[in-house]
Amino acid sequence: MKVLVAAKRVVDYNVNVRVLSDESGVDLNNVKMSVNPFDEIAIEEAVRLKEAGKAEEVIVVSVGSSACQEQIRTALALGADRGILVETEEDVQPLGIAKVLKAIMDKEQPEIVITGKQAIDGDNSQTGQMLAALGGYGQATFASEVELGDGTATVTREIDGGLETITVKLPAVITTDLRLNEPRYASLPNIMKAKKKPVDTYSPADLGVDVTPSITTLKVSPPAERQAGITVETVEELVDKLKNEAKVI
Amino acid sequence: MGILVIADNDNESIKAPTLVTVAAALQIGDNVDVLVAGSGCGAAGEAAAKIGGVNKVLVADNDTYGHDLAENLAALVVELAAGYSHIMTSTTTSGKNFLPRVAALLDVGQISDITAVVSEDTFERPIYAGNAIATVQSSDSVKVITVRGTAFDPVPADGGSAAVENVGSVTDSGVSTWDREQIVERDRPELTAASVIISGGRGMQNGDNFTLLESVADKLGAAVGASRAAVDAGFVPNDMQVGQTGKIVAPELYVAVGISGAIQHLAGMKDSKVIVAINKDEDAPIFQVADYGLVADLFKAVPEMDGLL
Prior knowledge:
Helix content of chain A: 25-40%
Largest sheet of chain A: 9 strands, mixed
Shape of chain A: globular
Strand content of chain B: 25-35%
Structural class of chain B: alpha/beta
Distance between the termini of chain A: 58 Å
Oligomer: heterodimer
Distance between the termini of chain B: 53 Å
Number of helices of chain A: 6
Shape of chain B: globular
Radius of gyration of chain B: 20 Å
């Protein structure tokens, strides 16, 4: 079976983002960009399914500017077989991305779609669920373990109080949580090989999808700064301050 | 046009984040209905009727809704959606799971994790792990919104007397089934409801050492949390994680022990009223947000603190 992985190009998680002084957004000039960390976990899971003989082909999709080629190549170096770039300069929102992915699903007929539970830029946590809704598919979000059965996937999910296990019929959409796996690093030979793997490019219009956003960002401002407090010398002083100054214990 | 709030409930009671979501809803408009979906959830429905400011409680009581399966819950909400201008729920793992599905079925965007209401179509929400606050405006006919559980003062859980109505035809999607759950039973309060939290990071060195924090937590009536580094290292389970990708908390007192203070962790706790940091590295970024910093070896300081409480 085919596995489709959706991967987003985001500001690297180590970058401390700065808000632009005109409040139009955050400063993306000369900032390191990477594959969204949760999508890396998704790529790893898909590649492991292939290595275990459960999947024949792993396709990675990214939606965004032509620069997303880089993240597709990263995924190919990690073991994905081919890439699809849906190229647009529009600030595509989760519903638009979900519609694009639905169109790709209709074209490629994968049995499983895996993507990150959220992207670390927008922190929306919507795309996987929306894709499942559009296709009428089952969804298994925040996955920490995936077990494939006969036409089904049994998925352990991270929920507020602990874990729950559900079974979804395939095709289904799975979104990854932190503990699902630990992604590998790409080896140099695999990075070289990835350059020869095929990447198809479409526009949203080619796929018959309108990605015009319905939510407009009016401004982006820095968060309220928290003032640093004082240093206490002893545990006694700390407990005294908490009791008598802050009055929180 | 009214506002529909989908309650987070365990069939017996309404969870605290719902009171925050109702508070946010009341800032948008005064006609707020609450949907309680569950299996044998009559008691939760009655509890919802007592929430301050609620107009009407809709109860969908059926096995189908027992485990918050997103497919079934989303179908129910879509069926009830007509006549509502806003559909809201809390940013819990359940809310994050089913509400985007509702939005997509209604062909509208979702505004996730709002922290302020600017007007009926404009909201503030944190992006980039809280390093920026976006003000966003929705042109959709229905606004589908999740609300951060620490961002609004909760409405009172008692004092209301809303009418209760049974609703919903039963839809089982047939594409997903619930098998089992492993809910960790803890004697301590839940992270998102605790007024005091003591969290450990990589500096704890292993999971066993968390007993040091648990002992202090028991004296303070506190919940025990952890940084992503501690979860990644396998010290403690993921449901204890505080941060961008874990739980967002804002207790009266947050004690960070052996936590360096990566931006992803700060994103989950920097709205706490009082922050204490105990770390042996005086350059740790956590000290930049702490009200009280103690540069010390946690293995000496925490037992000493325990002895003084």
